Amino acid sequence: MTHFPIQDFSKLSTPFYYYDIDCLLKTLQVIEDETKGRPNFHVHYAVKANANPRILQIIAQYGLGADCVSGGEILAASEAGFVGNKIVYAGVGKSDWEIRTALEKGIHSFNVESLPELDVINQIAGEMGKCAHVAFRINPNVDAHTHAKITTGLNENKFGIAMEDMVTAIRHAQELGNVKYTGLHFHIGSQILDLSVYVSLCNRINELQNILESEGIVTDNINVGGGLGIDYDNPDGNPIPDFKQYFELFEKHLQLRNGQQLHFELGRSVVA
Ligand SMILES: Cc1ncc(COP(=O)(O)O)c(C=O)c1O
């Protein structure tokens, strides 16, 4: 049970931010407890949810990876102690210096949103004598049953590559010399409280994996994004989301192939 010490706040000048580190530590402990028996599950903290350096340090110390959407976030995560190969980098408008920074830090993978972006990453990686690991963000056309403005996985949303273009995109990556296709990425929305939408996401990923298999394409990583919601109506009574149910759902419904690694990008559910 978390309580805000309102009596102490009256001594502070406004505005200020109040962070409940104890609540954060308890949340991180639950995430650790729920994933430690599942060595192929990897949680990346979505830095956009809160990039305060001390918060980042605490999360990094718990061994989580980071999900970044800018060069600045990659630098902040790195500074806070997140190791490069646990950083994933998404974003619809990656600039050249941001791509270079990601490559310098040796990130785990780029979540790529379009073929022109892939070509730019390939070119910059080539100039740096590196090979960039890339996952394609696929728009799965799954309704997250959340607010329209934070719904990101429907056909009409701007994000990701259409499912029917998935194989073409992967084949294109396989032809390029400085990128390596390593996985698929999805993110259907935020503040998701109806967990059944994740079952729909798993079913869609299973279908897509069947297509990839029939094409002889090997996929090392599946990244299901973030989105797990929190209880804004009763934050004191229910401060930590139901991670147990969340992770169990993926274990039950997602048909991972041998050796496949499953990645999550959780933001709000970790810190909000
Ligand atoms: C690609 C991607 N991954 C992860 C997240 C984190 O979402 P959440 O904070 O709802 O877990 C977002 C949020 O916008 C996102 O766009």
Task: Give a structural overview.
The structure is a single chain. With 272 residues, the protein is α/β, with parallel strands linked by helices. The chain has one domain (40-271): Alanine racemase (TIM Barrel, Alpha-Beta Barrel), CATH 3.20.20. Helix content is 38%, strand content 16%. It has ten helices and nine strands. The protein has helices at residues 6-9, 21-35, 53-61, 71-80, 96-104, 115-127, 166-175, 196-214, 243-253, 268-271; strands spanning 41-46, 65-68, 87-89, 109-112, 132-139, 161-162, 179-185, 221-223, 261-266. It has an eight-stranded parallel β-barrel with strand order 1-2-3-4-5-7-8-9. α6 links the parallel β4 (109-112) and β5 (132-139). The longest helix has 19 residues, at 196-214. The mean pLDDT is 94. Residues 46, 49, 67, 90, 187, 190, 225-228, 265-269 line the site of pyridoxal-5'-phosphate.
User: Spatial order of the strands in the main sheet?
Assistant: 1-2-3-4-5-7-8-9
Overall geometry comes to globular
Low-confidence stretches: none
Bound molecules: pyridoxal-5'-phosphate
Number of domains: 1
The first-to-last residue Cα distance is 15 Å
List the helices and strands in order: HHEHEHEHEHEEHEHEHEH
Mean pLDDT: 94
CATH superfamily: Alanine racemase
Summarize the structure.
The chain has ten helices and nine strands. The protein has helices at 6-9, 21-35, 53-61, 71-80, 96-104, 115-127, 166-175, 196-214, 243-253, 268-271; strands at residues 41-46, 65-68, 87-89, 109-112, 132-139, 161-162, 179-185, 221-223, 261-266. Strands 1-2-3-4-5-7-8-9 form an eight-stranded parallel beta barrel.
